[in-house]
Design goal:
The chain is 35% helix and 21% strand. It is built from 13 helices and 19 strands. Strands 2-1-3-4-5-6 form a 6-stranded parallel sheet, with helices on both faces. Strands 15-16-17-19-18 form a 5-stranded mixed β-barrel. Strands 7-10-11 form a 3-stranded parallel sheet, with helices on both faces. Strand 1 (5-11), helix 1 and strand 2 (33-35) form a beta-alpha-beta unit. Helix 8 runs parallel beside helix 9 (255-263) and helix 12 packs parallel to helix 13 (364-387). It is globular. Bound molecules: 5'-deoxyadenosine and iron/sulfur cluster. 5'-deoxyadenosine (5AD) binds next to strand 13.
């Protein structure tokens, strides 16, 4: 029998890339590959790339520089190392990668990675292979399912892609070009995937999509189901204790989603709802299709349905034409809402997007200064949110052992990491934790109620993270 070939995948960017990396590993496992933690001893290295901002994109070329040396070393040692570039940079700059980086054997876009085994075979025959078309067939239909053992090693929290692509065309964003038009997977397929995950120890599902709440997959009744309806169905699966979804567009929040937050205890009370800006003028230039008032009214609907709901968001500073008063409006929006956490980015012009052609650019100095002010405000909100947990008892889904002796790590309903000293058999269980203190963004505490089964253990507040 041939020894298994070693595969190393390095993923950049969003949650969907993490999910895609797993599905690529599943596809290649069927072809005799096993995953390895280091690129140096791999027979195949895949860079699963992100194109959302220039900085993310550039990482590919510096990583390829390093891999060129590793490939030369491997060649000297008599090994054949193959290198593939996948993901959104592959989609957007496939030809350029082939031209600029002779070290690359295969380029594969996000809609074609189920063809990886064929592309590798083609690269072996013809030297190199590239596929960045949007194939007509359903990628998901041809992807093999992960093995039970693989699901178990990936942990108790899993992603499922339910929707892909985006039709919104925000003027700054590459996603509609790299991921293509918005497509929803059928309900039955998602339920099958979810059951398989639950049967193998998964307790928490995060449904992912570039515009996840635009979900409208075919239901078993032949109708298009909303995300809210899908969540209701998934909550019925034995073993699934927590549900999340990401990323939502404020314009597509339907009442069934709000009702799901009202009716489903398993649906976690944290909603990632990117606002991007607090200025109507900038939101219009971004083609966001919502105003600040629309955004606030969506927040209000969620809050009325679930009193303990919290929000996270994305913001862009320095979009072309953003004046000080527009930026102040963003600060005012953030102050008004009070986020549990939020990401903020400097605007990065992306080739081929309408905003990249806009002339009224914001200076680097202004961008830096605005980013700093916004991040300081968001940080203070996040600290306040985390501090409010001290002294309370919160439910934690335990995921893994921590770095320190005896320490176990899990997450709260609001995705805050929580650390306690406890036996390892609490992985996969949701247990109450009395929060004693904070260490940066983590909650430190001790198990609050009845001890879990297993060896007696002394519970104490963990130190360090
Ligand atoms: N420049 C800066 N940030 C961007 N994002 C998307 N495109 C750009 C860009 N061109 C941000 C948005 C989005 C998040 C995933 O990345 O805030 O919500
Ligand atoms: Fe990009 Fe999100 Fe706008 Fe779609 S809705 S274009 S993914 S920012």
């Amino acid at each position: 029998m041939k020894p298994p070939r070693k595969l190393h995948i390095k993923s950049y960017g969003c949650q969907m890339n993490v999910y895609d990396a797993q599905r690529m590993a599943d596809t290649l496992a069927a072809d005799g590959f096993v995953e390895t933690a280091s690129a140096d001893d791999a027979d195949l290295v895949i860079l699963n790339t992100c194109h959302i901002r220039e900085k993310a994109s550039e990482k590919v070329y510096s990583e390829l520089g390093r891999l060129r040396l590793a490939k030369t070393e491997a060649f000297r040692a008599g090994r054949d190392m193959r290198i593939a570039v996948a993901g959104c940079v592959a989609q957007a700059e496939g030809e350029e990668i082939i031209r600029r980086a002779p070290v690359v054997d295969v380029v594969v876009g996000p809609q074609s990675y189920h063809h990886l085994p064929e592309l590798l075979a083609r690269a072996k025959r013809e030297g190199r292979a590239i596929e960045t078309e949007f194939p007509a067939e359903d990628k998901f239909a041809s992807l093999p399912q992960p093995k039970p053992d693989t699901i178990r090693t990936r942990g108790v929290s899993a992603y499922i892609t339910v929707q892909e692509g985006c039709d919104k065309f925000c003027t700054f964003c590459v996603v509609p070009y790299t991921r293509g038009a918005e497509v929803s997977r059928p309900v039955a397929k998602i339920v099958d995937d979810a059951k398989r995950l639950a049967d193998n120890g998964v307790r928490e599902l995060t449904l992912i999509g570039q515009n996840v709440n635009a979900y409208h997959g075919d239901g078993p009744d032949g109708r298009g189901w909303t995300l809210g309806k899908l969540l209701l169905q998934l909550a019925e699966i034995p073993g699934i204790a927590r549900l999340r979804y990401s990323t939502s567009h404020p314009r597509d929040v339907e009442s069934s989603l709000i009702e799901a937050h009202r009716d489903l205890p398993a649906l976690m009370p944290l909603v990632h709802l990117p606002a991007q800006s607090g200025s109507d003028r900038i939101l219009a230039a971004m083609n966001r299709r919502h105003t600040v008032r629309d955004y606030l009214s969506v927040i209000d609907r969620f809050r009325k349905a679930r009193h303990n709901i919290a929000f996270s968001s994305d913001f862009i500073v320095g979009f072309p034409g953003e004046r000080e008063e527009d930026f102040s409006a963003t600060l005012a929006l953030v102050s008004q809402i009070g986020y549990a956490s939020a990401y903020s980015f400097k605007y990065s012009p992306r080739p081929g997007t309408p905003a990249a052609e806009m002339q009224e650019t914001v200076s680097a100095i202004d961008m830096d200064e605005r980013l700093e002010r916004l991040q300081a405000l968001i940080d203070s909100q996040q600290s306040a949110f985390n501090k409010a947990a001290i002294g309370t008892t919160v439910d934690v889904l335990f995921e893994r052992a921590g770095r320190n002796e005896g320490q176990m790590v899990g997450r709260t309903a609001y995705l805050q990491p929580a650390h306690v000293i406890a036996p390892t058999d609490i992985v996969g269980r949701i247990l109450p934790v009395k929060v004693a203190s904070l260490e940066r963004y983590s909650l430190l505490g001790e198990l609050a109620a009845a001890s879990p089964p297993g060896p007696a253990a002394s519970f104490q507040i963990s130190i360090g993270a």
